[in-house]
Amino acid sequence: MEGKHVLFFVLFLSIPNCFVHEVLGQNTKPNVVLIAVDQFGFDDFNNSLAYAKNIRKLLSEAIQCSHAYSHLYSTSSRAALLTGRLPVRTGMLKGRFLPFTSLPSIASSGGLPLNEQTLAEFLRRKGYTSKFIGLWDQGFGSKGKFLPLNQGFNTWFGVLTQHSELCSRLQQKPHEIFVNEVLILILYGLFWLLFVVASMWCLCFLKAKFISVLVVVGIVLYATNSRTTFIVVRSCVLYNDRHIVAQPYDIENITLRFTDEALGFIKTATQPFFLMVNHLVLSKPLFASPFFKNTSGKSDMFLDSLVELDWSIGSILQTLEHLNLTDDTIIIFTALSGGANFNDSWLCNSSQGIQENQGGCYNLSLKGNLSNLGNWEKQIHVPLLIKWPKMIHNGTTINQTVTLVDVMPTILHLTNTSYTNGTLNGKSLVGLINGTMEVLHSYVFHYLDVTRPSAVTHNEFKVFYSTMSDSGIVHHDPPLLFNIRTDPGEITPLSVEDNSELMANISEARERHIENRTRKWISQFEYPILPWLFPCANFPYCHRRDSGKLKHIVLNESILFN
């Protein structure tokens, strides 16, 4: 009798792992919904739960990775999600010479290389129908060669680059004003003609040819980059597949449009499907649709934007539930970079009543801001939630260090999609989920640019070899060493001398990582800007009104937080 009890106890303990392997062993093809937002740090995420009832619900039903890292730049993180590879290997990273942390213009000739195998391409071969919605930011190129349609997605609806103030302000201009701007276009063309003639004369006849080249390049960069007002408004381009829907688009209603497209795809797509939604909301300059303004009760645009994001996520979850697809759908939510968006004075008071945060506010004193880049925790520590009722138990937390490059191999693992070992830099999280693996990454390498890792995370320790200040990159000799578990704010460096063996191991791993790199010094962000690549709805006006209507969403008071 006692032996039977022991056998029963052993079988009982083995049920979760057996269940996981049984599910993965089946020829199942779950749907995949991947939702990402650009700037939403881990602390901001935890402290925002008072205003996000749908995200709270998702958190209670999903597995949470409490130490997930993005890359320093959102464009780089998006490339990592799509390819499962480090941005330094795809070239989607700040270059060695120019200061750009993303593609500098909509007319840039750089982009996510077509020889990179994306998640959509892997799933498409598996029989998935896929759609990309939202911010692409992975390049346009000649004849739109870098668009999602050429990267494995069947359809896409979204924008090419990050929005600006002008996307909201100038979209109100009447069509007649855009027509009158033909005169500006003519003058602009004459300027370029005179500029080319003057440049040729300088290069041919002036002795200071090097200075002339610098002047020519500087003018080209200024005249075609995203900071030029004349260009900015025409960079606000909304695409539906290969067609320009609006130029410029209405930024205030863009979250509604993205959500409507997502719901329509879920309702009509052939299963299995893969949906990737990359929201603009929460990114600066902040915005919210008219229905969501002042819904937070704080007269704060960030919180209003957060409430709208939460509604969008809730609408997607609710639609999956109504269609009885919840059990057959993997849902992943994450952010592509951290950041400080909250007003600390009222945030702490607002979080006290939330059950998930009874202990008070999370640490808001983490280092890092836009002028002090350096892979600080505040800038790269992001939320990562994974839900699949068929496999993942509610409320589980993974405390080991993971990164966004691990998302793609995890999805491929859960969908039983095969890939060649060594082609991806990320690793599947399934081993951590089912308890068969204790450590996924011994070392995580963080980059400022394509040259070499500026920081390395090893278990609870992080070493900084270089950071960035207003005056440029600052190299630290000796490096800065922190215990990010006991000192998440990275305030008090540890003694390098007292941890000499640890430092030696980390530095050796860093050098080994650099030696094994097959792609060096190449950045897509430094590829030339070619004005003729600029997309235009109807030359020479480059203006089209958005005539789209919402078809799948209903706005009512029940969507608001409580």
Description:
The protein is of the alpha/beta class and 562 residues long. The chain folds into two domains: 30-172 and 227-451 and 521-545, Alkaline Phosphatase, subunit A, CATH 3.40.720; 452-520, Arylsulfatase, C-terminal domain, CATH 3.30.1120. The chain is built from 18 helices and 15 strands. The strands form two sheets. Strands 1, 2, 3, 4, 5, 6, 7, 8, 9, 10 and 11 form an eleven-stranded mixed beta sheet that branches. It has a four-stranded antiparallel beta sheet with strand order 12-13-14-15, covered by helices on one side. Helix 9 packs antiparallel against helix 10 and helix 12 (254-268) packs parallel to helix 13. The longest helix has 24 residues, at 2-25. It is globular, with a radius of gyration of 25 Å.
